[in-house]
Write a structure and sequence with these properties.
Strand order of the largest sheet of chain A: 18-15-17-16-20-21-19-22
Number of domains of chain B: 1
CATH class of one domain in chain A: Alpha Beta
CATH superfamily of chain B: Cytochrome c-like domain
CATH topology of one domain in chain A: Vanillyl-alcohol Oxidase, Chain A, domain 3
Order of helices and strands of chain B: HHHHHHH
Largest interface: A-B, 55 and 39 residues
CATH class of chain B: Mainly Alpha
CATH topology of chain B: Cytochrome Bc1 Complex, Chain D, domain 2
Helix content of chain B: 40-55%
Structural class of chain A: alpha+beta
Helix content of chain A: 25-40%
Strand content of chain B: under 5%
Distance between the termini of chain A: 34 Å
Number of strands of chain B: 0
Radius of gyration of chain A: 22 Å
Radius of gyration of chain B: 16 Å
CATH superfamily of one domain in chain A: FAD-linked oxidases, C-terminal domain
CATH architecture of one domain in chain A: 3-Layer(aba) Sandwich
Number of strands of chain A: 22
Oligomer: heterodimer
Strand content of chain A: 15-25%
CATH architecture of chain B: Orthogonal Bundle
Number of helices of chain A: 16
Number of helices of chain B: 7
Distance between the termini of chain B: 42 Å
Largest sheet of chain A: 8 strands, antiparallel
Largest sheet of chain B: none
Chain lengths: 467, 117
């Protein structure tokens, strides 16, 4: 492995062994698609899924292939941001400049069954990729809670699922192709330069625009899901053991009920699928009703909920992994999520529950997951096994307390924020949390010296001027 | 406490009663595609991700009964909802490149009785 300073020097020279290709060479790879001004769709406003983040870009770019992407970036001027499915709650996307949508750069390029690797275009949505892999007898090692995100957006923000021995999605990356704002191609692979790959795995879209990923996959597999309700304290006591003995374990604390929902997934031999309809939305609606009716009387709310929840029976399902690990969330919300060291996970969760239950308006379940550490420089799981704690507020209700009141709790536990979810950490705080932060900043400065890929949010994070 | 009866029923439904509902055939839902190849590609990377998932709450492709009250509002209104987002559906329905004509064609496909099993 190269010394970190060595490769930074080579990056500075823009001749690094990772494979910098000139713009012309990139274009030559797809000479049939000439970049044209017509590729830019008329500007229309953008908003994220929750409606919290909005912007009016000057133009949209929607390249159909990598060469067109490189050409368009080279010719564009001013601020530049990439957009995926719009499922980030933090202001990563908003710009008054150019928005790059990779929706047309979609689909599987090649499958290497022997090496268990696939080349995938960055605009491919996770659910689309999962279906394509399934058709080839393959599957992702793990999936996040939802699967409408583009692969590019999910990897750039450190998106993850749950599983004590399973890392976040980006840890499975074997390579990627990154187009800098100047239109130059960096072909990065783990074999050639693991350090550069570690830098680019989680990039917040601040190094360039990724056109394609090479991702490690595995043979497809079936999971047995079990869901049950249990008094929260009893479940928290058992959580470490449940996480150790199941491929996937997570829990949802149901606030003001004294109960939590436990969810395990265990890999099993293929069998006939059993997939009852999800009742998540019904439960959410019930929790909201309990809040609306009894919110002023927390003890009555808790007593009523306990009486009702205590009668529930466990649920079981059996299906292919991609059909069970991810779902669709019809109820819009805003969200903050932090990742704390594994050993502090449960104590932090207890503090979060106590803090949230001081606010009678809270009704959204609190999500608690396990994630294995990895090596990516800006991974929230960088060199530390973690527990993730996610808190939500309905999209049309106040959410400021997620930062104001929960933020200090997470910070006391050395929490690192999910990049795509609400947080208010500045550069100084992030530098203290990420040992390779300065290295990333140097690389970012070299690949984007004009700060074209920085919007207001990222300029605050990286302490640099934006275009 | 009678007013809490719906809550009780729903909470019981959390873990027990859901299998009593007639579950749509997931394989059939997954298999449906517009005949036009370009439209099929748009559908695969946007609409399908929710409109072929029973748990999404979205009207399912080919589920005529779910589409009927929506179609009563007129196609123009449905296209406008797709552009602006509605409920859990984001603005443009996950299809940044879709034109109004594309959105209209996709809605027509998903709501078509021909796709009803």
């Amino acid at each position: 492995m190269k010394d970190r300073r060595d490769w930074l020097k080579s990056a500075a020279a823009l001749g690094l062994g990772a494979g910098l290709t000139s713009r012309a060479a990139a274009q030559a790879g797809s000479a049939t698609t000439a970049p044209t001004a017509a590729s830019a769709a008329p500007a229309r406003p953008w908003q994220n899924w929750s409606g919290l983040q909005r912007c009016q870009p000057s133009q949209w770019l929607q390249p159909a292939d990598e060469a067109e992407l490189a050409s368009q970036l080279a010719r564009s001027q001013g601020p530049l941001r990439s957009v995926g499915a719009g499922h980030s709650f933090s202001p990563l996307v908003p710009t008054e400049g150019t928005l790059v949508s990779l929706d047309r750069l979609s689909g599987v390029v090649a499958v290497d069954v022997k090496r268990q690797q696939v080349r995938v275009r960055a605009g491919t949505r996770l659910g689309q990729l999962a279906r394509a892999l399934d058709a080839q007898g393959l599957a992702l090692h793990n999936q996040p809670d939802i699967d409408v995100q583009t692969l590019g957006g999910a990897l750039a923000t450190g998106t993850h699922g749950t599983g004590q021995a399973l890392p976040a999605l980006h840890a499975e990356l074997q390579g990627l192709r990154l187009i800098t704002p100047r239109g130059e191609l960096l072909d990065i692979s783990r074999e050639r330069d693991a350090e550069l790959l570690a830098a680019a795995q989680v990039s917040l879209g601040a190094l360039g625009v990724v056109s394609e990923f090479t991702l490690g996959v595995r043979p497809r597999f079936m999971l047995r899901r079990k869901v049950w309700l249990e008094p929260t304290e009893a479940l928290l006591e058992r959580a470490p053991e449940l996480a150790r003995t199941h491929r996937h374990f997570e829990l949802y604390v149901l606030p003001f009920t004294g109960y939590s929902a436990a969810i395990t997934h265990a890999e099993v031999a293929p069998g006939s699928t059993e997939h009852p309809a999800s009742a998540d939305e019904d439960v959410l609606a019930d929790l909201r009703r309990l809040r609306d009716w009894l919110g002023r009387w927390p003890e009555l709310r808790r007593w009523t909920a306990a009486k009702l929840v205590g009668l529930a029976k466990p649920e079981s399902a059996l299906d292919w992994s991609w059909r069970l690990l991810s779902t669709v969330r019809p109820t819009r919300f805003n969200e903050s999520e932090y990742h704390v060291p594994r050993e502090q996970g449960l104590s932090c969760l207890r503090e979060i529950i106590a803090t949230l239950e001081r606010r009678n308006e809270v009704f959204f379940p609190i999500e608690f997951r396990y994630v294995k550490g990895d090596e990516a420089w800006l991974s929230p799981f960088h060199r530390r096994d973690s527990c993730s704690i996610a808190c939500h507020a309905a999209h049309d209700e106040a959410h400021d307390y997620l930062l104001r009141e929960l933020g200090p709790v997470f910070r006391r536990h050395a929490g690192r924020p999910h990049w795509g979810k609400l947080h208010d950490l500045d550069r100084a705080a992030l530098q203290a949390l990420y040992p390779r932060f300065a290295d990333f900043e140097q690389l970012r400065q070299r690949l984007d010296p004009q700060g074209r890929l920085l919007n207001k949010h990222l300029a605050r994070i990286f302490g640099a001027a934006h275009a | 406490m009678r007013r809490f009866r719906p809550v009780l029923l729903a909470l019981l439904g959390l873990l027990a009663a859901c299998s009593a509902e007639r579950e749509p055939d997931r394989a059939q839902l997954e298999a449906r595609r517009p005949a036009d190849a370009r439209l099929a590609a748009l559908y695969e990377r946007s609409c399908l991700l929710c409109h072929a998932r029973p748990e999404s709450g979205a009207p399912l492709t080919g589920q005529a009964s779910a589409w009927a009250p929506r179609l009563a509002r007129g196609l123009d209104a449905l296209v406008a909802s797709s552009r602006q987002g509605l409920g859990g559906m984001p603005a443009m329905g996950l299809c940044a490149e879709c034109s109004d004509a594309d959105l209209r064609a996709l809605i027509e496909f998903m709501s078509s009785k021909e796709n009803t099993p």
